[in-house]
Amino acid sequence: MDEGLRNTLKVQRAIRDLTQADLAVRAGVTRKSVNAIETGRMVPSVFLALKIARALEVSVETIFALDGGGSIPEGDRDRET
Taking Cα atoms as reference points, which of 78, 80, 3, 16 lies closest to residue 52? Predict the structure, then answer.
């Protein structure tokens, strides 16, 4: 699991002074799901990522960036359409 993914979610949650349980309620998911994403045991589906982003009132890219910084790796830029 991408270390940037876990850290970004945890940081975004902490900025809002939310516990994992608080975020879970807002997103309509289980606390175990939030914990699993933060600890790298689970990669969220697009649907779950959207629910979490909406609950935090940020874009999906703010939390779930490709490399922790939101940029596209040099070799993948040609594939973007």
Answer: 16
Distance between CA atoms of 35 and 74, rounded to whole angstroms?
31
pLDDT in tens, 26-73: 999 999 999 999 888 888 999 999 999 999 999 998 888 765 444 444
Does the structure show a pLDDT above 70 at 21? yes
Distance CA 76, CA 14 (A): 32
Domain 3-79: CATH superfamily is lambda repressor-like DNA-binding domains (1.10.260.40)
Reference 38, options 63, 57, 59, 60; nearest CA is 63
Closest to 55 in 3D by CA, of 11, 18, 4, 81: 18
Residues 49/64, Cβ–Cβ less than 8 Å: yes
